[in-house]
Amino acid sequence: MKSFRIYLFILGVLVAGQAAAQHKKTFQWIGGPTYVLQLGNFKILTDPMFSPKGDSAFMIKKHPSTGAANAYIRRLIAPAVFDTSKIDVLLVSHPHADHFDREARTALNKQLSVVAPAANTATIKEWGFAHVTGLKWGDTTVFKKGDETLRIIAVEAMHAKDDPLKTELGKGNGYIIEYTVNHKVYRVYWTGDTVWFDDMQQYTRYGKINLFIPDMGAVGSDGSIGRRGLNSPDCLKIIETLHPDVIAPVHHSTFSMYIEPIATLQQTLDATSYGKKLKIVPAGKVVVL
């Protein structure tokens, strides 16, 4: 009888261990705005930028720093190698040239489930992707696998604060990503390309943010056209509003148009109680959440 009880105990430990492994959560930064988020059995790929390291990774209509037309942007760091199989969701904040490049459009499976801003669904379908769900701010889409649920909520991303740049850049999405298993919710907020705006204070209504993924870089902050994304003071405002458990920035260090070094965010947060919550993840490294 004692041996049988020991057997049951060991079996219970093994089953629990398998369940924990099955529901493991990981984060891998690929470079730029691109990362892979594994939430249990759901694998999410974001804003795919697969261009190689080089002087002409992509072209932008107007350089955010100099204003030069049709300017090429250098890729300083090659994209990290990652497993492109079994992607459940391709999550797109907006399809600008620095968020969805030609190499990704060629390489990715056109049968992927794509979630993107509603205004951009036609463009992404024109690129050959067959299954595109367009979300306006406040819209939700849900994926299920057994007892696991992935809920994606589109929230506002204000690419720039002032016109004419704000209108020129158009609307993009940020996302609240909720992963639920065994009645437990793990919640992620990815900003997309945005600046701070006061309505972000309303995002507390979504509940506790376990992982905060800000697009950094302060693009355009050194030019006369206007800043088109977060800098460290903006990011700190969001953090002080939402009090996330972990902060894992993306959209930094990779491309020549990123102006603010990621070390600036570290220095900013080190002067607060949030410094130890910041995880600056090297490209390619898989971090267990």
UniProtKB/TrEMBL annotation:
Cross-referenced InterPro entries: Metallo-B-lactamas, RibonucZ/Hydroxyglut_hydro, UPF0173_UPF0282_UlaG_hydrolase
**Keyword set, alphabetical order:** Hydrolase, Signal
Q: Which residues form the signal peptide?
A: 1-21
Name any one Pfam family assigned in the record: Lactamase_B_2
PANTHER family xrefs: L-ASCORBATE-6-PHOSPHATE LACTONASE ULAG-RELATED, UPF0173 METAL-DEPENDENT HYDROLASE MJ1163-RELATED
GO function terms (MF aspect)? hydrolase activity
Enumerate the spans annotated as Metallo-beta-lactamase domain.
44-252
Species of the source: Chitinophaga varians
Note whether Signal occurs among the keywords.
yes
This protein's record includes keyword Signal: yes
For this entry, the protein name equals Metallo-beta-lactamase domain-containing protein
